[in-house]
Amino acid sequence: MRSLAKGDALLYDLLMPGDGQLLLPAGTVLDDDYIFKILKMGVWEEALRCVDPDYDLHKRLEAAAARRKDPLFDYALFQEARLVMLKIEECAKAWARRDPVFEFRDGRILRQPIKELVHNILARIRTRNVVDYIDLRVHDVYDFAHPINVCTMSMAMGVALDWGEEDLLLVGVGGLLADIGMFMVPPAVRHKPGRLEVEEEREVRAHVVRGYELLKEFGWLKAASLMAMYHHHERMDGSGYPRGVKGSNISEQARLVMVADVYDAMISDVPYRRRNESGLAHRMITNLAGTQFDATAAAALGKAVGPYPLSSKVQVTGGQECMVILVEPSSLYKPVVQIGEEIIDLAGDPRGRRIVQNIVTRRFYRQKLTLACEYMVETGNRLDGTVLDLSLNGMCIRGRGVRVSAGNAIEVIFILPGTANTARIKGKVVWAKPDTTGAMLFGVATTEMHATNHDQLLKLIMSSMPTGVDS
C-alpha cells in the first residue's frame, strides 16, 4: 500500500474531515514535520488521497486480494456432479418407458448420491466469498451442466440471503432436479437448432409435470425441494407455466431456482442460439424484478453470482482481453480490470471502455491428437473415424459413411497410444456438422467408461499439459 514520504507534493487541498477546514493547500511539499503533524491529527488517509489520486483504488484492490481464494476449478467435484447427472438421466428415461426391472425405477438409489453432491457443492461455496463465485459454474454439455449450475447458483444466492443450512440444501436439491423431466423429451426436440413447432413446444413444456410426477414417486424429496422444481418455470406475475400460479403461491426456494434457471440458460450456448453476454442477462433479470421475478431473488443474484467474477476474463471495446481483479456491489457491470500491467477502473475510465463479452473457459483437461478409431452409432455397423480432441468428458471425432445426429447413442473404440490396450467408451452425440471435405465432425459426451480406461486416458490427457485447461 502507498505511504506518505518526504518530498511528496499535495495535488489537492488537504481538508479537515467534517468541517472542511483547510489544513494544507495544494502544491505543499511534505517534509518530516508535516508528515508528523498529519499523523498526529489523524488525517493520514486524507493526505494519501491528496498525494495519490489512485489511493482508494489501490486500497480496494488490496482488500480484494486479501479475500480472494484460489480460483482453480474443483475437477473432482465436477466429475462427481457429472456422474450423478448421468444416473439421474438414466432414471428419468427408465421411468418414462415404465421399465419394471430397472434398479433406479423408484429413485431410492439416487437419494444418497444427490444429497452428498448438494452438500459438497454447498461446502465448496462456503469456502469462498460468494461475490467472487467462479469455480463451480460448469461449461459442459448443456443437459448435464445446466442442472449443476442451477443447483450451485441457487444455493449461492441463498447464502447471500443468510439462509440456514437446511433451506440451502432444500433449494440445492430442487435446483439440481428442476429439469429432470427434460431427459424424457425426445433428443430431436431437445437439441433442435431452430424454432420449435407448436407440438414440440408443448412437448418441452410437459417436462415440468413429468418431472414432478417422477419425483413424487421417489418418495424421499421434501415438499420445498419438490415445489422448487415444480414452480421453476412459473413467474411472479402469473405468466409462467405449468399452472400460471403467482405471488405468494410460489415458494421462496422456487423464486431462487427460477432466477438461477433463466440466468444460466441465457449465458449458455444452446442449440438454437449463442450465449448472451452475462451483463446483459443480469440486467434483463434486474429489469424484470418485481414483475416476473421476485425482487429479493433478483437482488441475491447480484450479490452471489456477479456477471463478471473475480479472475474471469472479459473483452472490452477495442478488442482487448482483460482479467477482472475487483468487483464491487456499486459497480457490478463496470469492474476493475487488468490488461498487462495496466489497471483500469471501468466505472471511471476516461476512454469510456466497457465490457462487450465474457471469455468462457471450459474447465476440463483435454488433449489435441490424431487417433484412429472405430465407432458404432446406435446399433449400426462399425465405422472408421479419427479422434481429434479427447478429454475424460468427451471427444471430437471426424467420421465418414453415416450421418450422425445430436442425441445419437454411440460407442467409440481405439487403441491407446504406446500400449496394446483397447479403450471402449460409450457416449452421446451432442453436436454434429459436415466439414469442408464431406466428412462429419461430431462431439461426443462420455456416458460410460471402464475404470481402467479412465485411468489410462487421464494419463494420456495429462501427459502433454501445455494444452492445459482450454475451451
Automatic annotation (TrEMBL):
Q: Which residues form the HD-GYP domain?
A: 122-317
Q: Which Gene3D superfamilies match?
A: Hypothetical protein af1432, predicted glycosyltransferase like domains
| The protein, known as | HD domain-containing protein
Q: Which organism is it from?
A: Candidatus Tanganyikabacteria bacterium
Q: Which SMART domains does the record associate with it?
A: HDc
Q: Which GO terms describe its molecular function?
A: cyclic-di-GMP binding
One of its Pfam families is: HD_5
